[in-house]
Write a sequence for this structure.
């Protein structure tokens, strides 16, 4: 039985070109880029090459790219930069459906005395822009919002939000982890975005490497204090293999953004039409909103997602009930609760997130397996 991987929002396969490029830096080229002798120092140039590739993907300047250990670190750094020098008079504006990296930073900031203003979403998962406008009038320290939701694929109107934040002079951090590679990202054009976070392992790169984009004029307080690496903005010896791998992944992603979204769009259509044929009472979460083409979040009333996922796993299908970071928690996720406050207290949602390697044949196979499994569970 072959495996069908449908959890690309959790992580993606490492592209062969990526692992091949990294190998050299784990075997022969293992020097320290900060060394003065050539064996180490020459790696500086290679890091700069990867930085240029990331800048090209995100349409930013190379000097705006800071390598971190993960998007989680990038998000924490952006929020820390605007709140870290004393939380008492600080306010963070964010949404109720953010990733735990943002929500848990905000929880800690609140314990330190900061205020957090959470913007709601409607039943389609769309952001309440009136609430955001009202929040901006109160001059918060930072606005932090995701571009694409990891559970539903719903796209927030970051272009409009960027204009609003620029008008009010408020720094905006965008969690672009689920947007990069799926929709075009133009950091240089969207002047209202002050910071932007990316994760390599969501774009066929390695784990343990992320990026924070920060404009030259952005408030900045390092979260990781140490050596002079990353122009003093992130201490610690560089993860050279990770950075090289991310550079290659960025090159591949840059070339394939449009093709990627077209191939996954067709599969999304097959999956969602098929799901609604299997169960007419199934709810495709965010169906009425603008969504990326690789994500389908579906609630099957009366079907516990854990049991369904176990059955799918036995058939070789890798899927999840939502964010991998929240897989242990019980009940509907905070995203589903925010969209449907009167939802059942059981976890009945499954997320299928596709990638370029998935085929239409696989989509039909999954529908057959889903139909069988749901019939069994409904008994
Ligand atoms: N933000 C979003 C929207 C995500 O989906 C994820 C990962 O699932 C993260 C942040 C955290 O990324 P990382 O795994 O690089 O810390």
């Amino acid at each position: 039985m072959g495996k069908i991987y449908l959890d690309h929002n959790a992580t993606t396969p490492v592209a062969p070109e990526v692992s091949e490029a990294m190998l050299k830096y784990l075997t022969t080229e293992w020097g320290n880029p900060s060394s003065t002798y050539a064996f180490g120092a020459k790696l500086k140039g290679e890091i700069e090459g990867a930085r240029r590739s990331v800048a090209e993907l995100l349409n930013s300047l190379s000097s705006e790219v800071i390598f971190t250990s993960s998007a989680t670190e990038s998000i924490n750094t952006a929020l820390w930069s605007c709140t870290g020098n004393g939380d008492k008079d600080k306010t963070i504006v964010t949404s109720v459906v953010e990733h735990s990296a943002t929500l848990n930073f905000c929880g800690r900031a609140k314990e330190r005395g900061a205020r957090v203003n959470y913007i709601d979403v409607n039943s389609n998962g769309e952001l309440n822009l009136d609430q955001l406008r009202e929040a901006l009038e109160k001059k918060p320290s930072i606005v932090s919002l995701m571009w694409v939701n990891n559970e539903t694929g719903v796209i927030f109107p970051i272009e409009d939000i960027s204009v609003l934040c620029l008008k009010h002079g408020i720094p905006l951090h965008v969690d672009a982890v689920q947007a990069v590679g799926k929709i075009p990202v133009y950091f240089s054009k969207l002047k209202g975005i002050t910071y932007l976070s990316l994760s390599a392992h969501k774009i066929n790169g390695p784990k343990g490497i992320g990026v924070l984009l920060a404009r030259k004029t952005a408030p900045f307080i390092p979260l990781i204090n140490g050596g002079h690496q990353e122009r003093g903005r992130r201490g610690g010896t560089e993860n050279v293999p990770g950075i090289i791998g991310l550079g290659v992944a960025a090159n591949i992603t840059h070339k394939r953004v449009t093709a990627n979204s077209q191939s996954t769009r067709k599969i999304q259509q097959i999956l969602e039409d098929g799901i609604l044929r299997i169960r007419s009472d199934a709810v495709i979460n965010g169906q009425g909103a603008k969504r990326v083409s690789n994500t389908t979040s579906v609630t099957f009333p009366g079907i516990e997602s854990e049991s369904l996922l176990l059955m799918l796993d036995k058939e070789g299908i890798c899927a999840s009930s939502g964010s991998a970071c929240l897989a242990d928690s019980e009940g509907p996720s905070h995203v589903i609760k925010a969209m449907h406050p009167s939802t059942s207290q059981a976890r009945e949602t499954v997320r299928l997130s596709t990638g370029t390697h998935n085929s239409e044949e696989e989509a039909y196979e999954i529908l057959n397996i889903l139909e069988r499994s749901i019939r069994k569970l409904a008994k």
